[in-house]
Structures are given as structure tokens and as C-alpha cells.
Amino acid sequence: MSVTNTIISTLFLLSFLSLFISIERASVKLLGMVISRPGLSIGIITVAMFLVLYITTLSGFVYMILSVICLWSLMLGFVSDRKYVFSLAMIFLFCSIISWELGLERFTEYAATLAYICLVVGVLKDIFYEKISIQ
Amino acid sequence: MKKLVFNKKAVFFLASIVLLTAGSAKNIFAQTPLEYYKSLFISWGIKVDTITETVTTDTETKNKEAALGTQETLAFSDTLSSDKNSFNSNYLLVLSSQSGVVTSRYNNVIYICDTDTTEVKVFDCSSNTLNGINLLDTKTLESSQSFSIIEIIEPIVLNNTTYYVIPRVLITSPQYQEIVAGYFEAISRANLILQKDNRVEENSFLEAVVNIRGSSLFEGTIYVFVILVIILLLKNLLITIAADPKKLLEKSYYKILLKHPLAFLRKYRDIFAFIFLILFIFYLLIIYSLTIKGQLLGDPLYLTNYFISSFDAANFPVFILSKNIFRLSFLIYNFLLFIFAACLLLPSLLALLNSSLTKFKAVKIRLSFVKWSIPALLFVASVILSFFNLTEVISLLSLLIVAVLTALYYIKNRNIKYSDLFSKTELVLTIIFLTIPILIGVVYPSYKGRLPVNYSFEPLIGVQDRVVVFPYSKKWGENTLFRPQYYTGNSRVYADDYLVYAPNVKKIVNKPLSEFKNVGNYIIEVSELDKYLSTLLNYPELKTLATKESFSTIFLINNSDKSIDSYAGLRTTVTFNCSGDAEPGTLEFAFSSLGDSLSIEKTKSDILNFPGCSGNNTLEKIEVPIDLRGLPQKEILVTLQGIDMESIANLEILTPVGKIPITFINNTFLSAGSNVLLYSQNQRADLITLYSNRIEKNLVIDIVTTEKGFDLSNPINELIKSKALKNPFVIWSEKPNEVIKVRD
pTM higher than 0.80 for the full model? Predict the structure, then answer.
């Protein structure tokens, strides 16, 4: 494990520990403003994130943006009505069949993958939504 | 059916138009010397007309020919106006190689002598001489030289026409050209003043405009106008800053700011959608046409390459200069498509973002899930960091970081007391679990280093292709070695910078270049021009091996006795190959010499301005005086730069007493695009040594050839064990496309 990796892992540990340390009063005394425990934790994770970005430069930045987009889309699919997700899967499936008939193999593959993703999100929602969220 | 045929024809017709446009737009023709000189004079502020040698047969020209009594017919180029008066204000640019040019219609004529035969009739001028003065012998950088050159090119008035007679050397030599440029720029400025005076006399209205434009009140008004425009544009922002700056930190402020543009986009959404649809349909046609062209050319990547080269910002000036209308239109088309797509999608995207955020806020997640998700994500992140490099796992790590941040924001917004969710035992256990990956990460590598490595084996040439040829790129996993791969060819084989096989030898030694000794059979491996030059300068014994009889764009000159810069009247003769498209440009000498601390010192000097080929000969010689004073007193490597090296056939450096000895250096490896140059002594010996500046560890390889051939995996495995190879590494042979594997 490189020194950088150790520092990042340690920052992860610290961010978790900071959720248990009472810093509200100390922050008021020192900084004149209230810093909540999750706020401090977010700050530490942000430092770790900047360290990662500093080392990986552009690729890290791009991956962060891609991660935000993917996570947002996944969450959106997760909180949306299952009817929409499955309807979308049906549309993509229909497109893949049509494109297969037209001989557009690449498009068929792509549409089929999209249908598959929608189905997975819908099924995941069916299985886990009630276990994760409170109705 | 008929309709279908018609549609196909229509598509083909459209595709043909696109193909023809794309194809024709690609043609760029080499600039002629006349065009080159013209662009130079225009850049100095002199308005010049030229006469192109196009033979015409119409009656008018024949009459003109008869009237003028010329043998050759010359038609005026399209740059000329038919108005006689307008001719007089411009300068006529004529070359001595253009015969039979009538100049009486111009008041000013710039006459460039570009032929070596002296024009005895009117001007005593050749490409290097004027009025009997040989400009090649003039000391180019003497203090009085500027004046002497200006005296030499002082205009001559004949029959009310002013002639500026300029030998070609005054343009082709960068030092001379600088002086000539200064002279003509001064003339241009003087002409401007004269024209201004004339105009002012003619038109009092213009005079008034000029006066107003120059007044301080006008300048002040311009400033005020700019401020007014900015006030109008940023009115709301200014009011907010002045009245309530805190508002800038509020979300509602930006919502209001975006309200109007978004309302506009929503209102005209249907129109945007219609325009986008139309543009998209035509876009499909363009892509279809480009695909057809790719198929016709047999290039499956044509479409991709076309897009990449079209969107490459570095190519924009080329498209503009070459007037590649199709490419420029394609760029504008893409830009419009993007704008309309953005106009169409932006309001919907923002609405979706808004609604999703509302939904996310409304979702209540079970506390047990929130409780364990954060340590679980952090644990996974720490574990992958313990065993992998950051760059290898960046995609997964970034996803985990974003997920942790999302969970923390949820806790913060819901005011969840996270610490209350854990019992003391749970907390201690969680902290232990999170600490374990860090401890493993610190302790495991040193422990692992002491363990014997269990290598797994895989084929060196893993692809299932029927035939595999060198070079071959191989990616390898950790603790992986390769199964025997036999080579039966007779070329030297390398893995990255290491020589792993050589025919007819029993032993190979790979050594760093710093250990070089000029003994026995050896190979020097260098990559890149800079490394090549520094190797040659650092190891003088290699120079004899690098020499070449014929011309090369790298050569060695010896200035140890300061013989080069002591010569007054030093000049160079460059022979250009005009059988191809030799483009005009400035030829530069890049000097490399060994500094005091064995580092390479570099300087550059402009040597010659090549005006392009006149089209009369396949080889064209241009001679210019050069100034090489200030060169270091040692051996100097000179690299030619600045113009297409294919267009140079030979080069000589001359003094009044003879030629300066030049040693041409082999540079074929550079033009061949290979990454390595080799020098070897062709003695028969059992041992061969490879020296490379990229080798850090010595590696000895015993060549044991069996009936099956030589096992390449054996030395490569040794290199893998000593971590000397890159990942992926490249196996390559001196002979190009040497076959390594043939599947039965």
C-alpha cells in the first residue's frame, strides 16, 4: 500500500470517527460557527476526494462526474414509479427487435443493453425498495 | 417501387454532392514564388498586383499582343482591376523570370531578379547581384549594412515609372529580408500619409470624420457606451450587489435569474424541436454519405477519423486557410445541432433534476440501512486501496466516494443523530473493521516481499489469430510468466529496450549506455531525436559509425578552431527538390553542442526563406549569405528544421576560399518512424552488447537454440521478474513484420 493510499484510507476512518466526536461546542468557540458532525465528516471525505483528484488529475475528475451521473440516474430509477421503469424497458426491447429486423446489429445490442439495465433497476426496486425505505 | 428507386437515386445524388465537395475541398496546391513574394509585400503594407503567365487566345489579347509587340502573351490576373487609375496606386510585382511583362500602366514596379543571368538591357541584376555588387559577399550584420542595402535598392525612375530592383537573395536571406521589410514598411507608412492628405483635400466630410474619431471626447464616449451596455446587461446583478448582496448566496436569486430564459425555451419548445428534427435528418444524410465514401475508399475508420479531424481545434486554421468549405460548414452544422439540442433538452433536464431532488428528499430510508451503508462503503474503499494502485481503481473509488458523500448529506439534512444508532460494541467492532484494511495495507507488502512468488503461466502470444507478426504488444498480470514461445527467424528481437535474441551469437549483454565501451560487437539503442543527438555528442567514437555519404537533414560541423564564424562572406547553398510539392517556408539551423557539464546546449538560427519552386527545374539551388558568429568553439550537430525535409536535396556551406567540411549523419530511423536506431559492428563474434540510455539493469542472455527455435519467453520472463519491462511491453524485431506465430 502506497503512502497516499494509506493517507486516503486513514481519512476515510477519520470521517467515520468524526460522526461520533462532539465538535459543535468546540467549533463555536474556535470558529464562531456551528459545524455539525456530518458536516465535519463531509469535509474530511472532501479532502480525501481532492487528494484523489490531485493524484489522478483529469481522469479522476471525469470519473467523479460520471459517478455522480450514474448514481443520480440509479437513484432516480429507484425512486420512480416501477411502471415507468418497466415501460421504458419495453420500449428499448421493442427498438432492439425492430433494429434486429433492419439488420442494425450494433443498435440492437445497445437497445437490448438499455432494456436490460431498466429491467435490473426495476427488479432491484421491487426487491429492495421496501427493505431500504419507509413507506 | 418507383418511389423507392427515386429515393435511392436522390440519396445517391446527395451523397455524391457531399463526396465531391469533401473531396475537392481537400486539394491544396503548393504556393508559387510569385504568390510567396506577393504575400510578403502585402504583409509589409504594400498593395501589389501580379501578372500570371496564363496563355489566352481571345482576340482582345491578340490585339494587345500585336500592339505591344511581345512574343509571349500574358493575361492579367484576377486581382487586377480594369480601371486604369486604380492600377497606379498599386505596385506591380514582377519577376525577372517572367518575360514580356508590360509595366507602363503602373507608377511603381517591384522587380525581383530571380534568374542568374544578368539583365544587361535595363537593370544590372541577378538573383545574388545588383549593380555589380555581389550580395553573397557582403558582411550581413555589419552596423552600416542596413544603409548600404537601402542604397543598393534605391528606386530607379524610368519613363515616369519607379522601379524597385531587388535581387532574390534579399528576400531569401532572413537577415536581408528584415532590412528590406523595414524599408518597404516605411514606404507603406509614407504612402498612407500621402493618400490621407489626398483624401482630406478631396473630401471635407471625411476630414471631419477623421477629426472626430481622433478627438478625446469621442474616445471618452466609446468608454461610456461600453459601460452603458454592461449596465444594461447586468442591471439586476448591479441592483442586487448594491441593495442586498446577501441575496447572491440564496438559491431563490438564481431561480429567478433562470426563470425568464427557461420560460422562453419552454414557450418555443415546439419550434426548437422542429428545427432540431430537420437538422438531424440532414445530419443522418451526411453521416450516410461519409460512410459510403469510407466504403469506397476501403477505410472502415473513415467516418470516425473524419469526425476527429473535423473537431480537432488544431485543424481549424488549416480549414480556413485552405478554404475547406465543407469542413467549415460541417463544424457550423454540428454547432447548430448542439445549440438546438441544448435548447430542446435543457428545460426538460432542469425540470427532471428538480423533480428528482424533490423525490430524493421525500424518500425516507430505514435507519438500519443508513447506519451500515457508510461503514460498509468506507470499508470496501479501504480494502481496494490496500491491494491496488489508486490509478487502477479510480473508477470504483470515485463511485464509492460519491455514494458516501450522498449518505452523509442525507444524515445531515435529516438531522439524524448517527452516533445514537451504534451501541458501544458495534462501534468498537466497526472501527476495528475499518482499521484492518489500513493495517493490512501497511504490513502486507513487506510480508509479501519475503514470500516466494508463485507465478502463474500464460502464452506469450495469446491471440488466436492465424498469423501474428512483430511488433506485438503484451499486457501482463502480476506474478505472471510466459510459456515457451519459439522463434525461428533470423532477425534481432527486442522486448521494449532490451535485446532478447540475436542470430549467430551465443551471448547477449544488455547494458546502460553510461557503461559504453567501443570494444567488440555492439548495438546502440536510442530513441527520439534529442537522445540521438546527445548520444552522438557524448560518445565521439560513435560519430564515425553514424556518418552517411549522401545528404541528410542532420550534419556535423567542426568549429573547434573557430574556423566557421571567422569567415566573412560565409554562405550556404541549398538544393531544393521541386519534383514534389515543395511548400515555401523558413529553413532553420538548430545547433546542438556539448555544454560544460556534459549537457546539450541548443540554439537556433533562421537561414533561408524558401519562396517555393518556380516550376522550371526539378532541382532549384538557392544561395544565401549566413551569419554563424557566436557558435561554440567545438563540434556542432546541426538539424535542419522549418520546412518539409523531403523537399531538400542537398546543402553546402561555403566560404570565399572553399567548402566547409560537413559530415552527414544517418537519420533514416527518424523518417521511418521507428523508435530506435542501431549501430552495430559487423564482426563475427559470439558476444553482442546492447547499450541503451533506457536500460538501468544489466541483463545477460545465453542464446540456446533448440530444434524448435529460440525460446523468447525465457529472457522475457527474466525481465518480468526484475520488473524491467513496461506493462504492456512491446516485442519487436529489426526486420519489419517478422512472423512470430503461425497457427496450423
Answer: no
